[in-house]
Amino acid sequence: MISGPYNPTSDAVWLAAFVDTHPKTVLDVGTGTGAVALCLMARLDGIDMTAIDVSDEMLAAAKENFKQNDKTANFINADILSWRTNKTFDLVITNPPYFRGMPAAHNAHHNADLTLWTRKCIARTRPNGTFATIVDAAAASPVIAEMSAHCGDIKILPLFSNKNTAERVLLSARVGRAPHTTIFSGLPMNCDTILRDGLAIQDIVQRM
């Protein structure tokens, strides 16, 4: 159960399911109410989770959600675009604020510069660590370009609704790896084995 000033979407479930490693340390950037982090921790044990968000209201809701789900994390009230730290993580995961529009009442990020957002996330990923994200398909190009400039072993998985073009794109890359890109066959956004049964995406793509 996850509650708060923002209702999480299936994006959080998809992103958590896309992680194909078992990281010890994780940074969830723009954690919001904690949905991505909690979905990932429901799948994988033994994670040392750090959750960062610029909105104190969002973090308050995330802390309560972690408490209700008997999980713990290190919560940081800061802006990833200006956060000063030398710490890096096995996995940096983010469901960025890619939607355009008016600022939200809860003061969270909006209209984010996805190039800079991606760059800051990759900077917090340790060598050979993984950066993973989900974005609107129409906003994917700056993220992919920034990943290509700093990472290798790039994986791209489109998600389709009822359209014949992708609605979302799942992206991951490894820092310090050789340039290489894999584009998987797309999956439907209402895929029950992900959203209901909790199956990892790697278990599905291996059957394709």
Verbal overview:
Strands 1, 2, 3, 4, 5, 6, 7, 8 and 9 form a nine-stranded mixed beta sheet that branches. The chain has helices at residues 10-18, 35-43, 56-68, 114-123, 140-150, 192-195, 201-205, and strands at 25-29, 48-53, 74-77, 89-94, 125-136, 151-160, 168-175, 181-183, 187-188. The protein starts with 9 loop residues before the first helix and ends with a helix. By secondary structure, the chain is of the alpha/beta class.
Describe the structure using short key phrases.
nine-stranded mixed beta sheet, 7 helices, 9 strands, globular, 29% helix, 208 residues, alpha/beta
Sheet with the most strands?
9 strands, mixed
Element-level helix/strand string: HEHEHEEHEHEEEEHH
Unreliable runs: none
The total count of helices amounts to 7
Based on CA inertia axes, which overall geometry fits? Answer: globular
Strand percent estimate: 25-35%
Query: Could you tell me the radius of gyration in angstroms?
Result: 16 Å
What's the N-to-C terminus distance? 32 Å
Strand tally is: 9
Mean pLDDT: 87
- Bin the helical content: 25-40%
Structural class: alpha/beta
